[in-house]
Amino acid sequence: MTGFQxxxxxxxxxxxxxxxxxxxxxxxxxxxxxLQLVPHISKYHQFWRxxxxxxxxxxxxxxxxxxxxxxxVGVGIERSFGSRKYASFIVVSTILSxxxxxxxxxxxxxxxxxxxxxxxxxxxxxxxxxxFRTVPNLYSFRLLGIEFSYKIFTWILAAQLVLSHPPxxxxxxxxxxxxxxxxxxxxxxxxxxxxxxRRLWRPLKAFRIPxxxxxxxxxxxxxxxxxxxxxxxxxxxxxxxxxxxxxxxSTADATGGLRSLLAARAALGGVTAxxxxxxxxxxxxxxxxxxxxxPTGARAAMGEWVNEMTGRGTxxxxxxQEIAALSNMFPNLSREAVVRALQRSDHNTALAVEALLExxx
Length: 361
What we know:
Layout: H1 8-26, E1 35-36, H2 37-41, H3 48-52, H4 60-81, H5 83-108, E2 115-116, H6 121-134, E3 140-143, E4 146-149, H7 152-162, H8 168-184, E5 188-190, E6 201-203, H9 211-225, H10 241-244, H11 247-269, H12 279-285, H13 297-310, H14 320-329, H15 335-344, H16 349-360
Helix pairs in contact: 1-4, 4-5, 4-6, 4-7, 5-6, 5-8, 6-8, 11-12, 14-15, 15-16
Subcellular location: Membrane
Keywords: Membrane, Transmembrane, Transmembrane helix
Protein name: CUE domain-containing protein
């Protein structure tokens, strides 16, 4: 994962979920979190449980699995949706999954399905459905001859959360999955709209919270949540690294190495040989990033072939100082070989030395 950059809604949900679960534990309010038809709603008319139970988990194990799933799955879905659409999706998933769960316990409480555990099961499994439908399988691996997708670790966490309080947890997870499925379809629902008041029947994915409300919440909670820095990556994966590196730097390094080599050979041979600063080497030393400052072997060979074919040879002959410096460095080679190397290298002493080294070896 790469942090919470561009995933402020998921970050806020995780922080709110952790604070509410911790507060319920410290205040000894866990018995008031789950949704139970008999006797809490039917006898004592505690309808507020319908609105409270999605906001906190009842124990730390479910909280840990829920937070891991939100971080692993919710961040990517929010980045693909955008913050406003993702916040609208969270609102729709919470309302619809709670309605489905409450309706199911009303009709099936006679068969033993009487309570739903506390926690945002509807939100988590609705996000998991979007993750299942939109995120492809990047890689797979084999274990004991069986091929598994990399998503298997996410499904293991989800299975542990489903089986935490059966059958109520299974019903809550199924309600969230159905909500995620309905969100991706074009099934019309009665959705009020401020911008289009006449168009009431629309798909769930067409619902958006008002821009004013979204901006207001962003101004309120952004200072509290803070800005998530971008993930830290190695410099070698940054785009444009090869283009951004000046080619003249490598040429300057080669020129510096040539100077050291000439100085060492002159010290051993008793002759002081200083390479002549041609326009090419001068441009390389001064950091000029032009095309002429970086002659390559292939470019030099092509230029020589063109000059031979067109008869446009270089008019200037090598100087005696250049010939003497290279002759002292390569006493076993003839004067003609030194002159030929200087001419072929366009009077570039560095390239001439490299050519003579290859010839002498």
